Amino acid sequence: MSFWFNLVKDVFLRMLQLLSFSRRKISNSLSIYIKTNTGSTLSVELDPKWDIKNLKEIVAPQMGIAPEDIKIIFAGKELHNSIIIEECDLGQQSILHAVRTPHKIVNKTRNTDLIEESISETSDLNDSSGSKPMNETLMDLSLDESNLENLSLKEQQENRAHFYVYCSAPCKNVTAGKLRVKCARCGSGAVTVDRDPQCWPDVLQPRRITVNCESDFCPVTSSMHKDETESQVSYAHFYFKCAKHPSLGENDEAVPLYLVKPNLRNIPCLACTDIRETVLVFPCEAGHVTCLDCFREYCTVRLHERRFEFDEEYYTLPCPAGCPNSYIREVHHFHLLGVEQYERYQRFSTEEHVLRAGGILCPRPDCGMGIIPPSIEDDRECRRIQCIGGCGYVFCRICLQGYHVGECESQMSDASTSVFSSNYYSVDPLKANQATWDEASKKTIQTSTKPCPKCRTPTERDGGCMHMVCTRAGCGYHWCWVCQTEWTRDCMGNHWFG
Amino acid sequence: MAALPRRIIKETQRLMQEPVPGISAVPDDTNARYFHVIVTGPEDSPFEGGLFKLELFLPEDYPMSAPKVRFITKIYHPNIDRLGRICLDILKDKWSPALQIRTVLLSIQALLSAPNPDDPLANDVAELWKVNESEAIRNAKEWTRRYAMDN
Ligand SMILES: [Zn+2]
Ligand SMILES: [Zn+2]
Ligand SMILES: [Zn+2]
Ligand SMILES: [Zn+2]
Ligand SMILES: [Zn+2]
Ligand SMILES: [Zn+2]
Ligand SMILES: [Zn+2]
Ligand SMILES: [Zn+2]
């Protein structure tokens, strides 16, 4: 009996929806996709002025269920019926998730008392479930957990999270970003987060926030075992989308530039002292701030002088005030410099990495490709190096001239031996067997020059001062003749002049 | 010519309104990035009583790069070479855009009060300062009288 009643009710509702749907005039349409938990995708045109209830009415007939049996999930939140679509920060071609509720609840609930409760709850119009979208609730994220603040309501309003991302394609620019979330286990976006992220580690590090995954294909939900074990928990995987272009699908992600923030506290720029709307906050304890223009200039000047530094494997810069532990570790921030300078940054970075790994740079002018040759101990006869991935130039490792058979040509070549591969030189038996006056000339070179500790270019000691500056174009490393490490204040105090 | 950055305007205003005691810094009439600086020799230093002229120039990429400062008046000091160049870490590797013209001038004044022969630029001066400080101080006083007092 109730079956027939439900069927009739269903048909009636669907007709009603179709009627109301056709009556609506779409003023400013937003075309989005709706993914259902059964795996199908619907394409829908929406009016941004509609609310979630309207949306459910449109989707219901296509899913073959009643609108009140549908949950709409977006960016980690189940959206409440009264939410207006334009409040949700949906872009064109965004994906919403529509999930059948009663079915899911029966399947997912681990407690029998709760089953009845939820069923009875979903049988009335279910207006109490759901919440505001993430963009409405999310606060500006602090850099770490230590300084989570208690903010007043007004401050919370002003403190809405703003994200900046680097959109590698198609925008190729720094743009506004949107935070999105999916199930770390199955990759489905049909998840609701158990809490909002509060700090960047919540977003960037895995396994910090749990989610309720609604996908039928998720190993957690489809599992028959309902024990709450570690393996049964799903975690949030947060990612970002560019807000400037229509979504290009689920894999269209952008890199968050988490040091770029709206300047809510009106802090003047460290360099120009202007108070700007958007700033870059360095990860130092003081949280020094520069405006984006000054950041660009700071980086460009340092890049020009090749004064970026290594912080572990990152080729980067510290806070311009010289604070300890202030290196930028998300090097995508250097995209702020623009395409041309970023390319230069990448080139320098690659070169410096190669040199640091004991490699050499292709000697051909305008190439400079970094090459890591096989260790000479492994293959001592092999002096033939090809610039693979660069210009293709084939050259002699020893003299850096075009590749040749037999001994390298000139006396000069011996000098350049130590220039570019002094580390191989000393263990090269070919060289060790050379004429004695070569030995002697090597000694003179050794005593008047020492290799730059950074790039191994021999630098001649000039004017009695122990403060050396590497002469290799693009290195310019300041080092100490005595210590053969970076030039420091201690060197200056202890043995500047020997 | 590019507009003068607001930071330079602000710093100049502040230097005019609240000058650093014992130091005057006035921008050039034709070039707002070029400052004529006069530092009075600090009391109880061999430079006492002297007026030392310096030039200070804010490069194009200031405050990313340090100001360029040079003594114009001859001075006998281990950290200042024959061309008036100053050996001061904040003018080189320790420069930070958080520092200002004011900080630089104060540091130079401090350098006159406390020469550091272990951190020398003028090698021979530093040498003498180390082995025979009283003679070095006598020289410094003599140079101050000769070059920094008659104007
Ligand atoms: Zn984009
Ligand atoms: Zn899942
Ligand atoms: Zn600035
Ligand atoms: Zn700092
Ligand atoms: Zn090449
Ligand atoms: Zn060769
Ligand atoms: Zn070098
Ligand atoms: Zn040293």
TrEMBL record, chain A:
<dbReference type="InterPro" id="IPR003977">
    <property type="entry name" value="Parkin"/>
</dbReference>
<keyword id="KW-0072">Autophagy</keyword>
<dbReference type="InterPro" id="IPR002867">
    <property type="entry name" value="IBR_dom"/>
</dbReference>
<dbReference type="InterPro" id="IPR054694">
    <property type="entry name" value="Parkin-like_IBR"/>
</dbReference>
<keyword id="KW-0597">Phosphoprotein</keyword>
<dbReference type="InterPro" id="IPR044066">
    <property type="entry name" value="TRIAD_supradom"/>
</dbReference>
<dbReference type="GO" id="GO:0006950">
    <property type="term" value="P:response to stress"/>
</dbReference>
<dbReference type="InterPro" id="IPR031127">
    <property type="entry name" value="E3_UB_ligase_RBR"/>
</dbReference>
<dbReference type="InterPro" id="IPR041170">
    <property type="entry name" value="Znf-RING_14"/>
</dbReference>
<dbReference type="Pfam" id="PF17976">
    <property type="entry name" value="zf-RING_12"/>
</dbReference>
<dbReference type="Pfam" id="PF00240">
    <property type="entry name" value="ubiquitin"/>
</dbReference>
<dbReference type="InterPro" id="IPR041565">
    <property type="entry name" value="Parkin_Znf-RING"/>
</dbReference>
<keyword id="KW-0833">Ubl conjugation pathway</keyword>
<dbReference type="InterPro" id="IPR047536">
    <property type="entry name" value="Rcat_RBR_parkin"/>
</dbReference>
<feature type="active site">
    <location>
        <position position="465"/>
    </location>
</feature>
<feature type="domain" description="Ubiquitin-like">
    <location>
        <begin position="30"/>
        <end position="99"/>
    </location>
</feature>
<dbReference type="GO" id="GO:0008270">
    <property type="term" value="F:zinc ion binding"/>
</dbReference>
<feature type="domain" description="RING-type">
    <location>
        <begin position="265"/>
        <end position="498"/>
    </location>
</feature>
<keyword id="KW-0863">Zinc-finger</keyword>
<keyword id="KW-0677">Repeat</keyword>
<keyword id="KW-0479">Metal-binding</keyword>
<keyword id="KW-0832">Ubl conjugation</keyword>
UniProtKB/TrEMBL annotation, chain B:
<dbReference type="GO" id="GO:0005524">
    <property type="term" value="F:ATP binding"/>
</dbReference>
<dbReference type="InterPro" id="IPR050113">
    <property type="entry name" value="Ub_conjugating_enzyme"/>
</dbReference>
<keyword id="KW-0833">Ubl conjugation pathway</keyword>
<keyword id="KW-0067">ATP-binding</keyword>
<dbReference type="InterPro" id="IPR000608">
    <property type="entry name" value="UBC"/>
</dbReference>
<dbReference type="GO" id="GO:0031372">
    <property type="term" value="C:UBC13-MMS2 complex"/>
</dbReference>
<dbReference type="Pfam" id="PF00179">
    <property type="entry name" value="UQ_con"/>
</dbReference>
<keyword id="KW-0808">Transferase</keyword>
<feature type="domain" description="UBC core">
    <location>
        <begin position="3"/>
        <end position="149"/>
    </location>
</feature>
<dbReference type="InterPro" id="IPR016135">
    <property type="entry name" value="UBQ-conjugating_enzyme/RWD"/>
</dbReference>
<comment type="similarity">
    <text>Belongs to the ubiquitin-conjugating enzyme family.</text>
</comment>
<dbReference type="InterPro" id="IPR023313">
    <property type="entry name" value="UBQ-conjugating_AS"/>
</dbReference>
<keyword id="KW-0547">Nucleotide-binding</keyword>
<feature type="active site" description="Glycyl thioester intermediate">
    <location>
        <position position="87"/>
    </location>
</feature>
<dbReference type="GO" id="GO:0016567">
    <property type="term" value="P:protein ubiquitination"/>
</dbReference>
<dbReference type="GO" id="GO:0016740">
    <property type="term" value="F:transferase activity"/>
</dbReference>
<protein>
    <recommendedName>
        <fullName>UBC core domain-containing protein</fullName>
    </recommendedName>
</protein>
